[in-house]
Design brief:
With 221 residues, the protein is mostly beta strands. It contains 4 helices and 13 strands.
Length: 221
């Protein structure tokens, strides 16, 4: 038996239940449960995000990097057989870590910049090297520009360029990337993978092995 208040007990969780944010957005469906192997209590669960939440309805021809997110058990507000309501807003859910990630055992981030990346990141020759360009934005803000490079973390590898941005009302869902580098197909990069931006590029918080496990989107409808 769960030890939480009625409507939030562990036994109320059922696979396939619809997941909603605290501000009423449908996130997706409950796909997996993560249980403590000794105490056998529920630690977290995995949500398979809906096509609308991931942005696929807005860019149906794009591949998707990840569509499952891990939610801590403590972030549940209420549970019934068919519906789970989170304490988190939709914006907060989009910042949660993906369920699956991949990493080589000997992977490092100390690779030098490739010639292609150096060329892509070189300032315009029309701007004197002695002048520093500074964008008028806060440290907690992302600047996204059409056609700008999207880089794979700090590896110096380019994923592609920004084609479009996806919004759900006023909330950023993710960025559509045109293949021009590591990527070979158009991809939706969810908001949670956007690490930072500078005046030259967006940076995605991904490992090289994550990219190898990229799969095409398969419509279920």
């Amino acid at each position: 038996m769960g030890t939480n208040e009625p409507g939030t007990q562990d036994e109320d969780f059922h696979l396939g239940a619809a997941i909603y944010s605290s501000d009423g957005t449908e996130i997706g469906k409950l796909s997996r449960l993560i249980v403590d192997k000794d105490a056998l209590t529920l630690r977290a669960f995995v949500v398979k995000e809906s096509r609308r939440f991931t942005g696929h309805l807005l860019s149906p021809g794009s591949w998707l990097l990840a569509d499952e997110v891990t939610v801590p058990r403590s972030e549940v507000k209420s549970v019934s057989h068919d519906r789970i309501v989170l304490k988190l807003t939709a914006a907060a859910v989009r910042k949660l870590p993906p369920y699956l990630s991949y990493r080589y055992g000997d992977e490092t981030v100390t690779e030098g910049l490739t010639e292609e990346a150096i060329s892509a990141l070189t300032s315009s020759p029309a701007i004197p090297a002695s002048l520093e360009q500074v964008a008028n934005k806060g440290a907690d803000e992302l600047e996204i520009e059409g056609g700008e490079n999207v880089m794979l973390g700090d590896t110096g590898k380019r994923l592609g360029t920004v084609k479009d941005v996806l919004f759900d009302n006023a909330e950023l869902i993710g960025v559509v990337i045109l293949p021009d580098g590591v990527l070979k197909e158009e991809v939706i990069l969810p908001r949670r993978f956007l690490q930072r931006s500078d005046d030259l590029a967006l940076f995605a918080n991904l490992s090289a092995a994550d990219m190898e496990h990229l799969k095409p989107f398969e419509s279920t409808g």
